[in-house]
Amino acid sequence: MSWDQETLPQGDEKRTAVREMFDAVAPRYDRVNRILTFRLDVRWRKQAVRRLALTPGARIADLAAGTGDFCIDLAKDGLRPIAVDLSFGMLSADRSGAPRVQGDIARLPFGDGAVDGVTCGFALRNLVDLDACFAEMARVVRPGGRIALLDVGVLRNPILRWGHSIYFGKVVPRIGAMIGSDAAAYRYLPRSVAYLPPGPEMVAMLQRHGFADARHETLSGGITQLLSGTRAST
Questions:
Q1: In the chain, which ranges are continuous DSSP H helix?
Q2: DSSP assigned state of 79
Q3: Which among 144, 140, 151 has a CA at the least distance from the CA of 54?
Q4: CATH number given to 11-230
Q5: What DSSP element (H or E) covers 151?
């Protein structure tokens, strides 16, 4: 599968392509991320951890954990993260020291109500069936537990949206090629936003799956979006 194709992959093809892409970019992933986001990704994760609002010692499943950035921030807040990622390459590059497990968000390796919370950083658009994955998150989070999910946003201001599209469509692939040695993977980034439903639709999905107070908010002027909510008692 080539990320240079005009049509974005679907189904099992998407799952395989995403895993292979992240296996390939894992060694330079953190460095490229810091440069591409001007370190704003650090601020966004900290905001997500605050939205969890869980007490120290809570067990958190960090989904699509990558190289462990979210796990590090969770641990600094006194929480106990478990890293879950479909990419073995990413897990191999993990530097958080948290327990790690290779797994698919659609079939999490946890029992019902086994964790106090779930985090996920910039991976919702990579999921094959977002609604099914929200259902799986609801299954593993205990009643009263919390979720905080980050992903890229869609800017509403037309001028900002134009500038943002130039940056992600032209500049990001070049930086990815120079530093990450994989321009095609970084060309996928701006196109992959098309996978995401609008914020209200994602909130409705979460509410159907037991996160009755689910909310959607934008960060940094809409560059990033954050979904959060509490698992209701059943």
A1: 11-25, 29-37, 40-52, 69-76, 88-92, 130-140, 158-166, 172-175, 183-192, 199-208
A2: -
A3: 144
A4: 3.40.50.150
A5: strand 141-152
Per-residue pLDDT of the chain (234 residues; tens, 9 = 90+): 444 455 677 888 888 888 888 777 766 666 666 666 656 788 999 999 999 999 999 999 999 999 999 999 999 999 999 999 999 999 999 999 999 999 999 999 999 999 999 999 999 999 999 999 999 999 999 999 999 999 988 766 665 555 556 666 666 666 666 655 566 676 777 677 778 999 999 999 999 999 999 999 999 888 899 999 999 986
Cα dihedral across residues 196, 160, 183, 73: positive or negative? negative
CB 186 within 8 A of CB 111: no
Rounded Cα–Cα distance for residues 155 and 118 (Å): 26
Which residues are CB-neighbours of 167 under 8 A, at least 6 positions away?
A: none
The domain ranges of the chain are 11-230
Secondary element (H or E) of residue 144? strand 141-152
> What's the Cα-to-Cα distance from 151 to each of 12, 78, 127, 226, rounded to whole Å?
22, 24, 12, 7
Whether 121 contacts 43, CB under 8 Å? no
**Those residues with Cβ within 8 angstroms of residue 37's Cβ, 6 or more apart along the chain or in another chain:** none
